[in-house]
Amino acid sequence: MPITVDKLVNDDRFSGENVLQFILYLPFGIVLLAIRIILALILWIASILLPNTQTVRQLLSTFACCTFGVYVKLKGSKDPRCSVMVANCVSCLDALAASHVLGTVSLKKWKVPPFFASTLGIKNAAQFVRKQHFADGPNKSMLLQPEGGATNGKGLLKFTEWPVQIGNRIQPVTISKY
């Protein structure tokens, strides 16, 4: 049975049926939001001050996953011969999850300050054009998300066409949310 487009995106996060639960959760949610904003600011400052080494990036990536509530579980293994990974898009934190577990870098899709983007595993597209990515770390895979937009994980959108030829081995990756 095919999935229709309206089933790929959740339009209503709050259906209105659980107003009492929402009101009871609201104070806790505001405190949690404030804590996450403070931790994100600390991560941002740390990404500016600390040296840009693999160990520091991995440590900041771990703290970023904890701060944003990203739990990553890897099923299967990464093929070391693949330099390009193609994945679906579930949220704006996909690059963080893939960078944390697989050690990949992703093209910059979200408006993130450049000094904080490397912590999240995001690089500017111009760096790939200059092949600086492969000079920085030839063993790092590139994560491409050709869907162009996030879905709820129940299906795939049509892939956008990329104006590049990829001659390397490609490994498919599925990102799902729980």
From TrEMBL:
GO terms for cellular component: endoplasmic reticulum membrane. Keywords: Membrane, Transmembrane, Transmembrane helix. GO terms for biological process: ERAD pathway. It comes from the Eukaryota. The chain crosses the membrane at residues 22-50. It is found in: Membrane. PANTHER family: ANCIENT UBIQUITOUS PROTEIN, LIPID DROPLET-REGULATING VLDL ASSEMBLY FACTOR AUP1. This is Uncharacterized protein. It comes from Diatraea saccharalis (sugarcane borer).
